[in-house]
Amino acid sequence: MTVVVLTRRTTCDPDYDDPREREPVSRIIRSVLVVSLFAAGMIIFQSPSPASAAYCVGIYRIYYNSPGSDTGSNSSLNAEWIQLHNRCSTSRSLTYAKIKDAAGHTYTFTSYALGGGRYVKVHTGKGTNTATDRYWGRSWYVWNNDKDTAYLYNRYGTLLDKCYYNNRYASSVYC
Q1: Which terminal residue of the chain, N or C, has fewer Cβ atoms less than 10 Å from its own Cβ?
Q2: pLDDT tens readout for residues 124-159
C-alpha cells in the first residue's frame, strides 16, 4: 500500500510558487506591454508631417553631358537635365522644393505637384513648363561633364535625396 502525503508549501520554501500570487504582476506586465505597443503604433501610423510628405520623390537620372559640343545653344542646354521620380502612388507637392548642384546653382519649383508614379525632367535651358518638363531658364550649363553632385531639398530645406557622379566618359547617370 502506498501512502501519499500532501503538504502545503509556504512562502519560506525556496521552491514555493503559487500562480495565484503571480497573477497581479502578470496583469501589470501585460497592461504595460499593451500600452507600449499601442503608443508605438500611434507613432508608426501617424500621418506624415509636411517635412516628410515628399519622401516618395527622388532623383532618378541626370543627363549631365548633352550631345555634341557645349555651344550654349538653348537646344544643347535643354539636352542637359535632371529627372525626378515619384515612387508613391499618390501625387506629391514639389512647390518650393529645390534642386542644387555642388556649386550652388539652384532651381526652385513654383506651384507644382508630381503625380503618383510619374517622372519630371528639369532642363537647364529655356522653355515652356509642362507636367513632365520644367525649365531652369539658364543661359549656360549647370551639370559638370566629369563629376558633380545633385541635391533635392523640400520646401523646408530638408535634404530628400542626392546623387553623385564621377565619370567623364559617360553622358548620364541613374541614381
Answers
A1: N
A2: 999 999 999 999 999 999 999 999 999 999 999 999
Domain with 132 in it: what CATH number?
2.60.40.1260
Helix, strand, coil tally for the chain in percent (to 5): 20, 30, 50
Exposure string of 17-31, with b = 16+ CB inside 10 Å and e = fewer, is: eeeeeeeeeeeeeee
Residues in the chain: 175
Whole-structure pTM value:
0.70
Let me know: does 35 contact 140? Beta carbons within 8 Å.
no
* 69 belongs to a structural domain: yes
CA dist., res. 70 & res. 66, Å (int): 7
Domain that holds residue 122: 56-174
